[in-house]
Amino acid sequence: MPKTLxxxxxxxxxxxxxLPHVLDWLERHEPDILCLQETxxxxxxxxxxxxxxxxxxxxxxxxxxxxxxxxxxxxxxQQVRYGLPDDAPDDQRRFxxxxxxxxxxxxxxxxxxxxxxxPKFAYKLSFLERLTHFLTSHLTPEIPFLxxxxxxxxxxxxxxxxxxxxxxxxxxxxxEHAFLARWRQWGLRDxxxxxxxxxxxxxxxxxxxxxxxARNRGWRIDHIWATPVLADACLSASIDRAxxxxxxxxxxxxxxxxxxxxxxxxx
Length: 267
Known about the structure:
CATH class: Alpha Beta
Active site: 109, 150, 252
GO biological process, one term: DNA repair
Keywords: Hydrolase, Magnesium, Manganese, Metal-binding
Number of helices: 8
Pfam family, one: Exo_endo_phos
Strand order of the largest sheet: 3-4-2-1-14-13
GO molecular function, one term: double-stranded DNA 3'-5' DNA exonuclease activity
Strand content: 25-35%
Number of domains: 1
Distance between the termini: 6 Å
């Protein structure tokens, strides 16, 4: 087992479209684990073989054209959970959990919410409530656990380009922030912000429609939050902004963190 674990999360906004980018990125960076969101393909159409050629095994939980999450890893995955316990059979596919090298890893794609007045915002809050219930009832903060993915929430003013104009809007609303507060109280910690406590302009998503990347009008909504045993052992955490500047990119950049594994998991 490795003594360190490098974990990345990336909303690829269609694995079909972005597959060459993802494969190239994996070849260059070789993370131990990559969590994907918005794969937008049913499980049967996921490109397993392309990742197997690079040495990765994959667990996937997808659907045609929308949503979809995956976890790729060099090491075997155990205790894989597809969806939250109270998901309806036809529910959106947004949550996947696996244990790898003794670390429990979740890939989550939180709904965007569209607008505060939209039914989609109510769905987002409902999803966050169900996710929070799962964390607090099925896991404990004493275990090595990483909540990776697109939370669709910027935690604080420093995490978006114009907090005043966006206050109490979707992705920066007090009702969303209340869930992050509950996660912190439970024990989760923000890997990137702990490594870069005062760094402005540290964004992971830039809107296609407004030319956000060229103007650096970004938001930090993609995260790797860790329980204390891993947060205390975080060696580095960053956002690969350069990936957003490629031709035909996802509107999100990969987030990457490296942890020193507890001795009982590293072997």
